């Protein structure tokens, strides 16, 4: 359900940007570091929104892959631990408000199905 709200809000935001861009069609002067150009404001708005989305997606995907690598590293480091070691990890996570299931809990959950 959370994903649906995200897409609905993204669609509304894109629609608002499109309406705003269509209203502003007069040409404007765009100053680059190496010169100037005159473009329709609609292009400036749409290109800016598109580049903002691309930069945001790139930053989000970098963070996503960093977290994936960290999860793999943590899973491999806890693979050979004794049950006592896992309970110490569980108590550490509980102190910090993090709820994570151990490999034993996941196995028990899967075997119940």
TrEMBL record:
Transmembrane region(s): 5-23, 43-65
Pfam families: LapA_dom (PF06305)
Location of the region described as Disordered in the Swiss-Prot/TrEMBL record: 74-113
Domain Lipopolysaccharide assembly protein A residue range list: 24-78
Keyword field: Cell membrane, Membrane, Transmembrane, Transmembrane helix
Classification via PANTHER family: MEMBRANE PROTEIN, MEMBRANE PROTEIN-RELATED
Protein name: Lipopolysaccharide assembly protein A domain-containing protein
Organism for this UniProt entry: Thalassobacillus devorans
Gene this protein is translated from: yrvD
């Amino acid at each position: 359900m959370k994903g649906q709200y995200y897409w609905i809000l993204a669609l509304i935001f894109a629609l608002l940007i499109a309406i705003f861009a269509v209203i502003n069609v007069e040409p404007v002067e765009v100053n680059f570091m190496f010169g100037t150009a005159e473009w329709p404001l609609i292009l400036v708005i749409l290109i800016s929104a598109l580049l903002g989305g691309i930069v945001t997606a790139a930053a989000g995907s970098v963070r996503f892959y960093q977290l994936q690598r960290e999860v793999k590293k943590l899973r491999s480091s806890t693979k050979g631990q004794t049950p006592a070691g896992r309970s110490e990890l569980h108590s550490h996570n509980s102190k910090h408000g993090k709820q994570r299931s151990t490999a034993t809990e996941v196995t028990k959950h899967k075997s119940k199905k």
